[in-house]
Amino acid sequence: MTIKSKQFATRSLIALAVASAFPLHAAMAQDKPAAEARPQAGQLETVIVTAQRRSENIKDVPMAITTLKGEKLDVLTSGGQDIRFLSGRSPSLNIESDYGRSFPRFYIRGQGNTDFDLNASQPVGLVVDDIVQESPMLKGFPVFDVDQVEVLRGPQGTLFGRNSPAGVIKFDSAKPVIGKQEGYATVGIGNYRARNLEGAINLPISDTVAARVSVQSQNRDDRVHSGRPGNGTKSFEGYHDDALRLQVLVKPTSAFSALFNVHARDMDGSATLFRSNILKKGSNELVDGFEYSRYDTDGVNEQRLKTEGASMRLRLDLSSVTLHSITGYESADFYSRADVDGGYGAVYAQPMGPSYANQAAFIPFVVETADVLPKHRQFTQEFRAESVNSGPLQWIAGLFYFNEDIQIDSISFDSLAPGNPLNPFYATQFQDTKSWAAFGSLNYTVSDKFKLRGGLRYTNDKKNFAAKRVELTTAGPFGISNESTNVSWDMSGTYALSADSNLFARVATGYRAPSMQGRLNGLADRPSFAEAEKVLSYEAGIKQDLFNRRARLSASVFQYRVKDKQLTAGSGQINMNQLINADRVTGQGVELDFQANLSDALRMTLGGSYNNTEIKDSDLFVQTCGNEPNTKGVNGCTPTGVAGPFAYTQKLNGNPLPRAPKWQGNFTLRYSVPVADGEFFAYTDWAYRSTYNMFLYEAKEYKAKSLVEGGLRMGYKWDNYEVAAFARNITDKVQSVGAIDFDNLTGIVNEPRTLGVQMKATF
């Protein structure tokens, strides 16, 4: 239960002012990126991004952006990692999941959504090949044969999709090239019998048509097993994850092109393992005797996900304007069942042996659920026009339409009950969303040094929602219909201190449409609703090439405030969520991106961020873990925050946002040296994040420890071949990174060390 009075509490806004001084280095360069000469030996390549829907030098774009591509992506995915490998690889970016390889949850500058319902919206937008991926089930599509990843921090509402008040992560696949035959194939094997295959081939069909076929297959055997006597053979955490992308480019004239894209994913594996009784009471340490490879359960754990999609991107270049039409269709079919109580036995279970040995120290109630997406479809259409004249004024204008229709089933099971799973209890949700928007932006070159940009977007959202609960009788359906509108805007500017140094500043607003949720638990339960959230963001920074372009720096400071922030409160006792709004949330921080060619043999990147978030609502409180002492008189966790007005509640005023570490950092170093007719190389990468609250409230057990994870890849290249050995999480550090807030200290741990070898051939 969550209670919020009508009183509005205000506190003074704390502004974080950070002054950073960096040496300015002037070098010879042309005014326009297109006219820049090719990099000389030792210089960094010019990075071209499409953050403003045009191809531009990243230095000229007035916002905080990080890009990832090429070898760095190859290194980070070498062990068969899913999209969560991006977490911490860009300042202020965090990614996690309570479902495993599906349903990733994204956070930028502390803003995200911990909701685990299948219709949960997120304030971080995901755009793949110009198509918005709204459903959480679409956002985990494997990353392969990708040309570039762009992480755009801050609100992006005026040009991209929908629901992006925190930022956008943008993926651009490698596209077909007419008149060129090329490709690559990568084969990798690793511990736990991992087998990873990836490849692509570009096929020139004619002088006007080309196709590109890209495939990936990631496989691993089970690496966690049940040690419970008489429980039969149960094994977990294996998977088969296959994905395909087919693109066809048709360019009959120099002025017109059509790019068709068909893609699909078929994943079969395990859901996240919720492990009961693994946290020491009063701390966030794992219990003595914890074994990663052992998981005793009386329930079923399985997960299947199939997604399919297609898009058509048309472009027509006229004398003074370019016209775009982008049509997209996506669908998903999902089934995930897990033993959420994290072990075996019911309330009568007695401790037997060491605290972790059989995971039955205390299971207060049976919670075994399945989340099913039997129906999902998404259709999007965008029409966009952009100027191509050479004058000081450039513009973009467009229309965007979004339609999503989904059904969600949440099914309760009890493997200890006779007849299970016959006649299970379940809840069903139906949601139909229609949205349209008109948007535009203006770019004006005031002088050779000063450029201004402004954007405006009008959005109309309509949602029809219904939920019902089926047990021996039926409750519902209970309906909610809502229509909301919003006008968002942004203004920014770039000032060139020199040919190599730009200052930028940006003010932007963002918007996330209202949310509904109806994972009904019991016939008396009702759906919850959260009003739209709106954000106002400020940021300023510097982008600079250094040392004759052998190094590049981007640094920024930011501050934002969110009105009616959508949050997700757990029940404190059962596997339930409730949507709430906080009056206000603030955030401020600093971000840094740096890369350099230290020598002909050494290349380095360094990134970091500080994010300070705070919930500001003196009347908002939630239930804490366990809600009340369980039947054995033991409360599950140790709350540390300010007590609420009722027993086992906690006030949220002053708490940080959940899953929002204050400090993050990343570092890579590549060394190479010529050997014989090839090159020996070694690439190490490291990511750090500080502690964070797993939930809205604070508790000793549910405050994640800080974490450092590193990787290493070493190999040899010659001609068109490469062979390498790799290790991910090379320190093999395993700790709790998430939890279920029942009263039996159930946790989720990060992945252990993975090892393997790879071979790659290009042609």
UniProtKB/TrEMBL annotation:
Region listing for Disordered, in residue ranges: 217-236
Motif position, TonB box: 46-52
Pfam short name (any one): Plug
Domain TonB-dependent receptor-like beta-barrel per the UniProt entry, residue ranges: 294-730
Motif TonB C-terminal box, residue numbers: 746-763
Keywords, comma-separated and alphabetical: Cell outer membrane, Ion transport, Iron, Iron transport, Membrane, Receptor, Signal, TonB box, Transmembrane, Transmembrane beta strand, Transport
Annotated signal sequence range: 1-26
Membrane topology: Multi-pass membrane protein
Chief location: membrane
Span of domain TonB-dependent receptor plug: 58-168
Superkingdom of the organism of origin: Bacteria
The keyword Repeat is annotated on this UniProt entry: no
Compartments it resides in: Cell outer membrane
InterPro entries membership: Beta-barrel_TonB, Beta-barrel_TonB_sf, Plug_dom, TonB-dep_rcpt-like, TonB_box_CS, TonB_rcpt_CS
This protein's record includes keyword RNA-binding: no
PANTHER family (UniProt xref): FERRICHROME IRON RECEPTOR-RELATED, TONB-DEPENDENT OUTER MEMBRANE RECEPTOR
Sequence similarity: Belongs to the TonB-dependent receptor family.
Protein name: TonB-dependent receptor
Native organism: Massilia aquatica
